[in-house]
Automatic annotation (TrEMBL):
Family: Belongs to the oxygen-dependent FAD-linked oxidoreductase family.
Gene3D superfamilies given in the database record: 3.30.465.10, 3.40.462.20, Uridine Diphospho-n-acetylenolpyruvylglucosamine Reductase, domain 2 (3.30.43.10)
Keyword field contains Ribonucleoprotein: no
InterPro entries reported for this sequence: BBE (IPR012951), FAD-bd_PCMH (IPR016166), FAD-bd_PCMH-like_sf (IPR036318), FAD-bd_PCMH_sub1 (IPR016167), FAD-bd_PCMH_sub2 (IPR016169), FAD-linked_Oxidoreductase (IPR050416), Oxid_FAD_bind_N (IPR006094)
Record-given protein name: FAD-binding type 2
Record keywords, A-Z: FAD, Flavoprotein, Oxidoreductase, Signal
Molecular function, one GO term: oxidoreductase activity
Length: 487
């Protein structure tokens, strides 16, 4: 689809032996796991189905084979074979991380975790377990039979890799990030050992895995988490036209600073379309997500509902309906040449207005560089950071809220030349750099671009470096798969 992307994005250092090493690893794995779990046929349906990424540029990479492990043991055998052959590899859960080579691989082994979907619930302890395959929508549907859920994605279509990067949920202001609810993980280490990580066993590994990123310290093959109750929600989207831009950003800023009800969560998103503006403002829309855990939000969202909206879908919803806002399948519909960047700010000094202005100016000046552009405001209230702390704190050791994470999306048009693609990405990057970030706050890795080196913004960076060194001592993961830099 975008053939020019291959030479562009395959520019990572791929070891010279990779082309021979991939097939060698595949042969070994097929011998040990049986051919039913290893697919090297590029024309078969489950090979091509597996190569669906939210950043579709990655759909073009061709692994030497795709391995579909069904247990930690299978993952262990695979990692040992990959290591012995010196092959590149990638670990894929839901495939939504847009950074190339994080869950995709060219001429190496793709470990597709999609067959690992076992789940369980213990009503006595209220602990839930899930394996890394599948999407959060399926995970939620399973636990809903007990009126319970796990803290995970806000959109049903996202995969479980989200939790290893922290994981922002509509429930996070009450319970912390997805990773804060981890109680025990089963992890296959880079050397193939299968271990447990919890407060008691390998607590350093447990610490790093709570928001310190996927594909760094091993492969998580089972999550044991504290489940949470769910009932009726009051939720929906408000869509505003551009005329309401200033009122809505003011309401977002006030919500970030003053909302104290932990059952209330929002995402504020501004979108720009490629249409010419023509002073009609039809190229811009504002999409608010309002979610209240309970049937009556009181005045929590009054600042938004008081602004006249073009479309209003708010009302009583089940959790399943909440995670399918604005429309079911929205993660699938939004597949494309997508890239994320992240920002973090405290709400003082109208930082939210400044960030929005800067982004809008770029959007107006760079028509033709994007098919879709958005900026999302994601509040981190003090209740969230308190809930995180109360559970031991995560790999970010989050400073007290309130602050907010910005997610900047750029979807480039299909067929863009390589030079234009590079120029658009670099220019978007520079604009975001100029906006700057507030000191002492962590960049959210789930929304980060690889070149933003988010781990370096964590106060725990040195500790994470040491843990990485301990569990990946010979740099097997660091050198043979993509991921965040520890340097
Ligand atoms: C449409 C959309 C909506 C989103 N909504 C949210 C949201 O509400 N909240 C939020 O926090 N983030 C959200 N994100 C960001 C999302 O959390 C990241 O993109 C995340 O990386 C996706 O995980 P995945 O399993 O789908 O992707 P993958 O690309 O499969 O995995 C992400 C990374 O983790 C690694 N990994 C995955 N599973 C394992 C494992 N078991 N062991 C070791 N490493 C592993 C992969 O190698 C990869 O590097 C959203 C992204 C998109 C595109
Ligand atoms: C591929 O799909 C077929 C049938 O849909 C299934 O039998 C097989 O186990 C799958 N996996 C691999 C690795 O081919
Ligand atoms: C879940 O909640 C519904 C609605 O309140 C109730 O009818 C049902 O009995 C509950 N199920 C369980 C397993 O508690
Ligand atoms: C709504 O906005 C007003 C200022 O106009 C502010 O005082 C109030 O705290 C805001 N409420 C919420 C929940 O954001
Ligand atoms: C806001 O601006 C004041 C005055 O310039 C400055 O002292 C303060 O540090 C700023 N606060 C933040 C959070 O940026």
């Amino acid at each position: 689809m975008l053939p020019f992307m291959l030479p562009l994005l395959a520019g990572l250092t791929i070891p010279v032996a990779a082309t021979a090493a991939g097939p060698a690893a595949c042969t070994k794995i097929a011998t040990e796991l049986g051919s039913a779990k290893v697919n090297a046929n590029q024309l078969s349906t489950n090979y091509t189905n597996s190569l669906e990424y939210w950043n579709t540029i990655q759909d073009e990479y061709k692994p030497s084979c795709i391995v579909f492990p069904s247990s930690a043991q299978d993952v262990s055998v695979s990692l040992k074979a990959i290591r012995a052959a010196g092959s590149r590899f990638a670990i894929k859960a839901g495939g939504h991380n847009p950074n190339t080579f994080f869950s995709s691989v060219q001429a190496g082994v793709l470990l597709d975790l999609s067959s690992m979907t076992a789940k369980s619930y213990d009503p006595e302890t209220t602990l839930a377990t899930y394996e890394p395959g599948g999407i959060f929508g399926d995970v939620y549907e399973y636990f809903a039979q007990w009126n319970r859920t796990v803290v995970g994605a806000r959109l049903a279509g996202v995969g479980t890799g989200l939790a290893l990067g922290g994981g922002m949920s509509y429930l996070s202001p009450q319970y912390g990030l997805a990773c804060d609810s981890f109680r025990e993980l089963e992890i296959v280490l880079p050397d193939g050992q299968i271990v447990t990580a919890s407060d008691k066993e390998n607590p350093d590994l447990f610490f790093a895995s709570r928001g310190g990123g996927g594909n760094a310290y091993g492969v998580v093959t089972k999550y044991t988490v504290q489940s949470r109750p769910i009932g009726e929600f009051w939720a929906g989207n408000l869509i505003y036209v551009a005329d309401q831009r200033d009122s809505v950003i003011e309401a977002i800023g006030n919500f970030i600073q003053y909302n104290t009800d932990p059952k209330a969560a929002i995402i504020g998103t501004y979108e720009k379309l490629p249409l010419p503006d023509l002073n009609l403002n039809l190229d811009e829309a504002i999409l608010m997500f309002l979610v209240y855990d309970g049937p009556n939000p009181g005045d929590a969202f009054k600042n938004f509902t008081d602004i006249k909206a073009l479309i209003d879908t708010t009302g009583i919803k089940s959790y399943n309906e909440v995670v399918n806002m604005p429309v079911p399948m929205s993660t699938e519909i939004s597949r494309g040449a997508n890239m994320f960047r992240v920002g973090v700010h405290r709400p003082q000094n109208n930082s939210y207005e400044k960030a929005l202005d800067k982004w809008r100016t770029w959007a107006e000046d760079n028509k033709g560089s994007y098919e879709l552009l958005s900026i999302d405001f994601q509040p981190i209230p003090k209740s969230l950071t308190d809930a995180s702390k109360a559970q031991g704190g995560n790999a970010m050791q989050m400073p007290d809220g309130p602050y907010f994470w910005l997610n900047y999306l750029i979807t480039t048009p299909p067929g863009m030349t390589e030079a234009k693609y590079n120029a658009a990405q670099a220019s978007y990057r520079d604009m975001i750099k100029e906006t700057g970030n507030d000191e002492g706050l962590p960049l959210f890795i789930n929304d980060a671009n690889k070149d933003q080196n988010p781990l370096q913004t964590f106060s725990t960076f040195k500790k994470l470096q040491a843990i990485k060194k301990k569990y990946d001592p010979d740099n097997f993961f660091a050198d043979y798969t993509g991921g965040w830099s520890f340097a």
